[in-house]
Design brief:
Blueprint lengths: L2 H11 L7 E3 L9 E7 L2 E7 L5 E7 L2 H20 L1
Parallel strand pairs: 1-2
Antiparallel strand pairs: 2-3, 3-4
Length: 83
């Protein structure tokens, strides 16, 4: 899925990821972020912890594959938080 489809899907499904926030415009080092951003020619799915600093979960070439994968990451966090 593309970025806009991802945004529409998580909103329509009402996914709750706890204290985490989602960032899609750039890589952030803010605490508790799940993100997917186009950086240096590839899509990077990343997360940050409570004390900040980011770690790349996966690098993906296509936007569609990146947001499909990122959706799974967000859904996993939703399931962890709500079970």
């Amino acid at each position: 899925m593309k970025k806009q489809e991802f945004l529409e899907r998580i909103e329509s499904e009402g996914l709750n990821i706890g204290e985490y926030i989602i960032k899609l415009d750039r890589i952030s080092d803010a605490p508790l972020v799940l993100g997917c951003a186009y950086n240096q020619g590839v899509w990077k799915v990343y997360e940050t912890r409570e004390r900040g600093g980011h770690s790349i979960i996966k690098k993906i070439d296509s936007e569609e594959d990146a947001f499909d994968y990122f959706y799974k990451v967000v859904l996993s966090q939703h399931n962890r938080f709500n079970n």
